[in-house]
Amino acid sequence: MQELLVDQLRDLYDAEKQLTKALPKLAKASKNPELAQGFRDHLEQTQGHVQRIEQIFEILGQKAKSKPCEAMKGLVAEGREAIAEDLDPETKNIALIAAARRVEHYEMAAYGTLVMAAQAMKQPEIARLLQATLQEETETDKKLAASGKTLLKEAVRPDGEATTKSAPSKAKSSPAKSSPAKSSASRKPNGHGHLSHTTSDHDEIRRWAEARGGKPACVQGTGGKGDIGMIRIEFPGKPNANDSKLEEISWDEFFDKFDQHGLSLVYQEKTAEGRPSNFNKLVANTESERKPKTRSAR
């Protein structure tokens, strides 16, 4: 049990040190002063988490050293993607919060398990140190959730609602928009007037991606035996893209994973300035959106 505890601590030691480098970038990318300050505050906490782990190693009579945390590498890579995405300020903040909350939930699961292990080993001081970090991670997640709720209200502005109300009349004039392979809310305006599209149609997704040089890929280190892990659409020359962590896969592999998890793709054809947009996001379907997909001929 102690060997397992030490191994898990080394994984978390690396994860926390990765975060000390990632959090300043999230703070800089945030378009909301309070959210940016929250990331800076959590950076200070994270530095304390590193020190606690070092203290635990000392209690166990072990040298404080880390081993690569592949899961955190993937989560940090998602954060970089959120930073690089071409989004309006309000939506950018929500994307950053989503990336940060994924990190918090990963850490909460890891620390929670180690607290139970320390208690079972009759190591109350180690359990106390781990519990203190777990509490801080939990509080951070609650703060991020509250910030997200507030910022979402600001992002969904009256002008966006008015544009949404006019969408049905436009849909009647274009038969393509009533395609059964798309969700009923396949065209949504963002705060700057350019439209996002939501679809689960394989041919539409492949057409949009290949028109921009996009290729199907998976994030290395996020899968397991027989599982390719998280999927992405990779674009050549994307700013800040962590190309070394993305591995090209076939469209068959991409869409098998896509269908298995009941996903849709949110994407944009053009930016607010009229330029071709590479913005895209994989999202889970709601029950009402889970309709038969059109399998592309590959």
Quickly describe the structure.
With about 300 residues, this protein is an alpha+beta fold.
What does it look like?
The protein is an alpha+beta fold and 298 residues long. It folds into two domains: 2-155, Ferritin (Up-down Bundle), CATH 1.20.1260.10; 162-289, no CATH class. It contains eight helices and seven strands; from the N terminus they run ααααααββαβββαββ. It has helices at 2-29, 33-60, 70-84, 89-120, 124-155, 158-172, 202-210, 251-260; strands at 182-189, 195-199, 215-219, 231-234, 246-248, 263-268, 280-284. A four-stranded antiparallel beta sheet has the order 1-2-6-7. A three-stranded antiparallel beta sheet has the order 4-3-5, covered by helices on one side. β1 and β2 (195-199) form a beta hairpin. α1 (2-29) packs antiparallel against α2. It is globular, with a radius of gyration of 22 Å. It starts with a helix and ends in a 14-residue tail after the last strand. Residues 159-186, 239-243 and 287-298 have low confidence and may be disordered.
